[in-house]
Amino acid sequence: MHTAKSVDDDAIQSLASFFENLSGNFSQSAPVSGWNRTSDPCRNNGFSGSLPSLTRISGLIEFTAQNNHLSGSIPNFNFLNLAQFNVSNNEFSGPIPPGGDRFTATSYLGNPELCGDPLPVKCEISGPALQATQSSNLSDGSKSNGPTSSEILMYSGYALVGSIVILVVMLKLCRKGKKKEESIEETSNSFHSKEKDGSTTYTYASNEFKSVGMSKSEVSMGHSAESAPVSSSLIVLTSPEVNGLKFEELLKAPAELLGRGKHGSVYKVKCEEQGMTLTVKRIKDWSLDVNDFKLRMKRLSNVKHPNVLPVVAFYCSRQEKLLVYEYQPNGSLLKLLHGMTGQTFDWSSRLGVASAIAKALAFMHNELRLDGIPHGNLKSSNILFNKNMEPSISEYGLMTVDNPDTSPLINNTSQQLNSDQNETAFKADIHALGVILLELLTGKMPMVENNGMDLATWVMSVVKEEWTVEVFDRALVREGASEERMVNLLQIALKCVDRSPESRPSINQVTVMINSIKEEDERSMDVSESSFTIKI
């Protein structure tokens, strides 16, 4: 028996002691003749007994024990490492262990009860004998022929990781298919944003919104374009420049979050290939179905006024709606009044905005009253200015009335509202216009800071104490604006915000009253410019 030189001397001495005790042919005191790294004392020595497992010796390269009286089963060896193996002419029984067929039958001849490859004798052992033999062989060679416990753990880990990877891939494929079916609900996830510090939240009645223009957010849209339906495209209503613009292209374009409110978010989108900048309004949680929404959009596109910002295109699905407008570069009335932009906003400009808004709202009410479509969400952040600082009402007809003294509108353009509901809905717009007039007069937010009062309640409480002048914006007072005309406009605003909808004036009455103040103000300016003094 030869071992590799890596086997230490202790292992060799231990093995020598084993062979010295195998047979009575050797005395306890006599050394095993010829035992060294090059000679073999095992063969032709008349050894008897059974062999122990020798698989623990990883450096074993040769085992020759022929012509002895060794019995029992052949233990497991690491046959791949053996250069020579011979146990012929012994009394071994049972099957040749796995891997033993690496050597020829001559290595096993002379063992009548030995079976299995490479011998021609097939094993027919069964029952307890076979189980005992297999158990013995497994216990002898589990560390050398079979995989080790660490290998089993490693392979199990590989299998587990592979299963997890396959499961994740299948889940992603399922989710991707589901996203294509659910359309805009998943594609709208492209409008993820990282808001910067400094944004301010204001609350008026049940309407919560972020101050437009006071904070900017960076938005990435590109990654969700894949979720859009393959056939998705924008429905273009009024702008020929938008023709051909695809929904996927809109999502891929760079965008900036302008504001986020109760009903959705507003984004500035730069379509570089088309050379235009658009505003995209994302509406959420609105129960109007797709067909009714399309009917409403087409109806609104047929009603045009120079001071009402039209929807140029839209996209809709079961879950959400996207509306596309031409971008208005000078921001909103909310920003102009409260955004500390440094722009002067004098009395005549404020009066002009009030007049333009009232006229536009009157036109829309008169055209859409039978359709039961008021604005529904009128506020200073929805009054936008174009490059010439001309105001426009945006988002007309997109929302139900959001006012505490009204019942929700029936979200179905195919059903006419009854007269009471119809009138209440339009009177809610009058209330909202009154709040805008109060903002123009006071320079204050819809929710007055520090006292937690809404603007209308605060103004009425001040006027009740006969401190009317105290409500006006100090910038207007310093400018020398006519106190009489400011008081007249204040009286109109207070009528509009009356707690009883029935007591509020109609939009036509409001328009006439505001125009009367504006004309009087213009006449006074003309007289002032034409008058002069001669001193002698």
Features:
alpha+beta, 536 residues, 19 strands, 4 domains, Leucine-rich repeat, LRR (right-handed beta-alpha superhelix), eight-stranded antiparallel β-sheet, 15% strand, four-stranded parallel β-sheet
Describe this structure in words.
With 536 residues, the protein is α+β, with helices and mostly antiparallel strands. The protein has 4 domains: 2-141, Leucine-rich repeat, LRR (right-handed beta-alpha superhelix) (Alpha-Beta Horseshoe), CATH 3.80.10; 149-182; 183-327, Phosphorylase Kinase, domain 1 (2-Layer Sandwich), CATH 3.30.200.20; 341-536, Transferase(Phosphotransferase) domain 1 (Transferase(Phosphotransferase), domain 1), CATH 1.10.510. Helix content is 35%, strand content 15%. It is built from 13 helices and 19 strands. The chain has helices at residues 9-20, 127-141, 149-182, 184-187, 247-252, 290-301, 333-338, 347-368, 419-442, 455-464, 474-479, 483-496, 507-530, and strands at residues 2-3, 48-50, 60-64, 69-72, 84-86, 91-95, 113-115, 192-195, 201-204, 207-210, 217-220, 235-236, 255-261, 264-271, 276-283, 313-316, 321-326, 383-385, 391-393. Strands 8-11-13-14-15-17-16-12 form an 8-stranded antiparallel sheet. A 4-stranded parallel sheet has the order 2-4-6-7, with no helix packed on it. It has a 3-stranded mixed sheet with strand order 1-3-5, with no helix packed on it. A hairpin with a 5-residue loop joins strand 18 (383-385) and strand 19. The longest helix is centred in the first third of the chain and has 34 residues, at 149-182. Residues 4-8, 23-40, 127-144, 180-218, 220-231, 401-417 and 531-536 have low confidence and may be disordered.
